[in-house]
Design brief:
- The chain is of the alpha/beta class.
- Helix content is 36%, strand content 19%.
- Strands 2-1-3-4 form a four-stranded parallel β-sheet.
- Helix 1 packs across helix 4 and helix 2 (47-55) crosses helix 4 (116-137).
Length: 140
């Protein structure tokens, strides 16, 4: 049996984008992939990220915000920085075979007391699903 294709998703806070991408890869990739996420300035998992993923049948509630330092001893086949800001703040990653940057909006910037932010979280969820489906379809 071959080892799983190891993917690290990085965003700034590890509270939303990277956590959602990790959840999608765990859900869609099965045992062919190992998914991790980290942040350059980690915070707590955003409750709306958990909520919209749950709406799609993916439970990320047990995931926790982690700093990039927590992954520095692990080897990855791919690291995806989910924004230019995350890529710029990321330390060198010699343990990663390939690094790429994909720009996704951070829905926490759109937070609105009237709930408009929930639509932004849903939009991000769906965009990340499509992106992760591409990773899975490519086989890693």
């Amino acid at each position: 049996m071959s080892r799983p294709y190891r993917v690290l998703f990085v965003c700034v806070a590890n509270s939303c984008q990277s956590q959602m991408a990790e959840g999608w890869l765990r859900h869609l990739g099965g045992d062919r992939f190992l998914a991790r996420s980290a942040g350059t300035d980690p915070r707590h998992l955003h409750p709306l990220a958990t909520r919209v993923m749950q709406e799609a049948g993916v439970d990320i509630g047990a995931q926790r915000g982690k700093g990039i330092d927590a992954t520095l001893r692990e080897k990855f086949d791919l690291c995806v920085a989910l924004s230019d800001a995350a890529r710029s703040a990321c330390p060198p990653l010699p343990h990663v075979a390939r690094v790429e940057t994909r720009e996704f909006d951070d829905p926490t910037w759109f937070e609105d007391p009237d709930g408009a932010d929930l639509d932004e979280f849903r939009r991000l969820r769906d965009e990340l699903r499509a992106f992760v489906e591409g990773i899975v379809a490519g086989g890693g």
